[in-house]
Amino acid sequence: MRNLRPNRIKEKHLPAELKKWLYASGSLTQQLTDLADGEFHVERIKEHYQRLTFADSQWMHMPHHHIAWVRESYLYGCEEQPWVKAKSIFPILSLRKKARLFQHIGNKPIGWFLFQRTNPACERRIIRLQEGWTRQSCYTWHGCKLIVQETFLPAFEQFIRQH
After folding, report:
1. Per-residue DSSP letters for 56-124?
2. Where are the domains of the chain?
3. For 95-129, how does the pLDDT look when each residue is reduced to its tens digit (9 = 90+)?
4. Which in 34, 108, 116, 148 has the greatest CB count within 10 A?
5. CATH class of 36-162
6. Can you give the pTM of this predicted structure?
7. Pairing between strand 121-129 and 132-141?
């Protein structure tokens, strides 16, 4: 996995308790489920189509005029407040292949399918958004490109500080 750091984020600026989560490989779904003693669920916020941003199209090596299906959701552990705000970006070209299943998973986590019997290639960048520290992962899964963005929310930071 290659780590890209836009805006020259230095590791020393990252909160120590979040560092391992931002750089962890594998399924965040499974890692959050383990942390929450088996409790985990997804709440979809919205799903829609949009044109790829220039930065995302460059990262996925696709023309920026391509349309993508975008799923936004909250990920919950064992508390009432969401721990993570997730945004997944699937270019239409990927949805014509094996990744089309992601449009029909409802409130199931993408990670359960993405990491099922496979370990997709991943490039990662860490950024700071207004909502919190965020990891963006560009996966290549069965020849399909997709981006998964996971923003760790204040409730998660508080939980890991206390446990």
Report:
1. HHHHTT--TT-EEEEEEEEEE-SSSS-SEEEEEEEEHHHHTTGGGGGGG-TTS-HHHHHTTT---EEEE
2. 36-162
3. 877 777 888 888 888 888 888 878 899 999 999 99
4. 148
5. alpha beta
6. 0.88
7. antiparallel
